Each structure stands twice: as C-alpha cells, then as structure tokens.
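Amino acid chain
________________
===
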Amino acid sequence: MKVFDLHCDTITALETVQTDLDNEFSAVNLRSAKSGNFEAYAQCFAAFLADDYRGEAAIKKWDRIYSWFERQLALYPDKIQQVRCGSDLRRIEAAGKIAAILTTESGAAFAGKLERISEVREKGCLMTSLTWNGDTELAGGVYTPEIGLTDFGKEAVKEMERVSMVVDISHMCDAAVDDFLKIAQKPFVATHSNCRSVCNAMRNLTDDYIREMVDRKGLVGINYLIYFLREGSPEQAGYEDVARHVEHFLNLGGEHIIALGSDFDGATVPESFNQVGKLGSLYDYLCSAFGAAIADKLFYNNARDFFERNL
C-alpha cells in the first residue's frame, strides 16, 4: 500500500510545543509511519496560520513553522526528504524515505505582498490555500461568505500560477470560489474537503464545484474530520462515511481527482484511523467496497500524477 496525504497540521502543531517528528503522540510521526509499512509515503505538511495572524505577525509565524520543518529534515535525513518538484516523488520513493511536501494553509502568509509569494515558493512551498475560515487580503473564507476574491487575490492567483504554486480552495467561501473559477488558468486542489451533498457542511464542496474539478483535472483530498464526514451523529463517523463520500465523487466522474486529505493533527477524526499507521484498515475497507484499482488511485496514484503533471 502507498499513501499520499494532501493535508496535515503536524508541523504547525509540533512547532507550537517544540517537539520533533520522532514522537509517539502526533497523528503523523515517524514511528507510526514506520508501523504502516508503506511501499511509499508522501505527506503534505501545512504551515497553518489561524485568523488572528495578519501582516508581519503572519510572516513571522510562517517563518517559524518553516524553520521547524527544516529542522525535521535535518534531524532525520535518512527517513524524510523534501519534495521541491514533481519529479522528486519517484526518486524519494525509491530511496525509501517519506516524501515531505511543504504547503501553506491561509494566504495570510503573503501579508498582502506579491513578492512574498515567490519568496515562499523558493523555500519549497508547493501549494497554498487563499484563506482559512476568515477573510484574508486575498479572499473570503467560510466564516465571511459575502466576500469574494479581492483585487489583490486576483493578482495573487496569477502570481501563484506563474511561479507554479498550486492554489488550494479548501476553506474558501462559495463567493470566493466562484470568482476564482472565472480567472483560474491551471488545475487546482481542495486539499481537505468532502461532498456537501453527503454532509451539509460549508467546508465541503458542492456538486458543481466537484464537476469543475473533474473538468479541469484538479484534485480533492477527503477530510477525516468527523463533522465533515457525517451529519447528525458525527461521533459515529467511520469507514462507511468515507466510502459514502468516495462513492459520490465517483458518481460525479471523480475517479481521477480523489485523494486523501486527512487533516491529521488539526481535526477530530475517527479513532479507527486516527494515526497514519492505522490507514491500512481504511485501505482494506475501501478495497472491499470499490476494488483495489480505485483504492490505489485514492490513496496515492491520483495525487502523485497530479503533482508530476503540474509541478
């Protein structure tokens, strides 16, 4: 089994408590990854900025998280290596190391400065969301549904596409997504979002957005957060709820855009797969439900192919 996860908050969480990846408590850690015995493992590590970080404070926070990410690479060079372009994936996989992809959660990291985009990209950040839940200099988040893409946001999207930084629409409000779709020229990603038709949460995607992503050859990471998996009794969310979202994506033609977007270390997820080392049980369930070919696309192949095509 191979695993490619589009979103976790692990590095941000570890920087906050000054702990390294070789621990026993975070959902993503070196010990749990080893116990999974994966043939290949690619993990996107998000530098997350909460909505109270703006301007210079956002820059400083992002830089601290980035330094902690660098520290992990330096501490464990035989176990983990950064991906800087799509062609790195197979090389790192062949070396038996974790392929670490740096991403950013919230365009507040740019602090309203276009030049900051290229600075972040030069440090290896391959993907960035425009918002978290609130609005940023770029766009409105799900807590500010009346705010679309700002003028700066439109320029930022063009600049992100120019420097080959993938845009992540997770957390954006519908008005901002609608504006984004009018100007986007390259494929984009929703790193950790599910189907709104299956679970009516604003952070989940409408069927129209999913169809757009299918048409534009994008990528969607299924989020394990219990509140985005299941309505009514989210504490009972589990394998079958992931399967319901997968089935809905498939019914909309999404066989080639589905991926994993765990939200590990940033969300409450089902206990049965609450660490990366437990993903084998979820994989087995989905193999039984949809066959190994679909499960392999979901768990690894679609994400690898997207990154190889677009980076």
